[in-house]
Amino acid sequence: MSPSRPGITVHDVLQKTLDVTHPVGVSEDEFRAAMSRLAGGVVLVTAREDAGDAEGVADLTVGEDVGMTATAFVSVSLEPPLVMVSLRNGSRMDDLLAEQPLWGVSVLAESQRHIAGRFAMKGRISDRLLFEDIAYARGEQTGAPLVRGALAVLECRTEQRVPAGDHTLVIGRVLTAAVPSAEGGPLMYFRGRYRTLG
Prior knowledge:
- The structure is a single chain.
- The protein has 5 helices and 12 strands.
- The chain has 198 residues and is an alpha+beta fold.
- A 7-stranded antiparallel sheet has the order 3-2-6-9-10-5-4. It has a 3-stranded antiparallel sheet with strand order 1-11-12, with no helix packed on it.
- A hairpin with a 6-residue loop joins strand 7 and strand 8.
- The longest helix has 12 residues.
- The protein is globular and about 45 Å long.
- The chain starts with 9 loop residues before the first helix and ends with a strand.
């Protein structure tokens, strides 16, 4: 079907619709304010630097533990089991997971706000000191620290890295999943603050 007016294409009509519904020029502050109204769970993403060998098997005799608080973490697929985390480009965790395919996730409980805050600090102290007084177990598949008392823990292997603006979306296949703690509710992040349900 040809357009009713010469020189107007379907692409032009669609673009006009997009221009109306998705205005160009949204400021960082406007975008941040809007997205802060989306409540999200809080996780600690962990990995052991230089821990994987050529076959992707954890080697605990080398490397150092690294951790990062994340709220942009979602389930992607049930078959196969996939999850995704969004990492800021150039962050230590982004650089590490570009080389290290094995990582862990601890879904933090409401009582673990101090852990989330500690690993979210800018200009923070060394990762070794950050982990010093936190109880954790090592993942059998990844060697990553998995926080004791977390609502759930997962071990993952990177399947895909997708550039997305100033972040990288890291999609991981879940190698192990456990629910070690049924106590308490989840730690949430809403309007720039850690919160609890209720």
